[in-house]
Design a protein that fits this description.
Strand 6 and strand 7 form a beta hairpin. It is built from eight helices and seven strands. It has 213 residues and is an alpha/beta fold.
Length: 213
Amino acid sequence: MKDVEKISSEFIETFVSPEDEILAALHRETALTQLHPRMLSGNYQGSLLNMLVKLSNAESILEIGTYAGYSAICMARALPENGKLITIEINDEIEWLSSKYFKLAGLTAKIEAVTGDAVEIIPGLDTEFDMVFIDADKREYLNYYNLVFPKVKSGGLIIADNVLWDNKIFMTVESNDYMTKGIIAFNDFVKNDTRVEKIILPLRDGLMLVRKV
């Protein structure tokens, strides 16, 4: 069964263009310099995010959790000339990596990188967003969702990564596993939120798409 799944995954990924030189270099440098390089969105998910920006005609995007900047580059490339992406990262020790590749990608005019706690920063953002991508502290997912919801335009998208969380959401949760508890609380809330349409894509670690109606 695993062999079949591997073949299926490899086949699906042939329908995505290979990483260009900049994204491939970012992928390599992240693997060489970061403790948890698998947190990188990667080519397949990055390509999906890029397409979602185009399909939704998004002009304003908020990303919560910059990490190395891979997903920000993928989304910003799909923005129109006057488009803007604000990305928030709490870890100032990785800012050197994302800013390096934002410059190499020629996207500094479209990407505004902010360092700090998104819970504190989001309330002060005076922007209406067409799209929000959540990929940060799993304990805060529901908090992020509630904070950004009033700032998302009607018909806008909220995308949340890692909603399957290595399938831990289906297992017995340890009392001190606040990450898994945070994902479960977020999933349950969105599932019952009548203000939105939602669907989970079984892509990588689970990607939830939420459309504000």
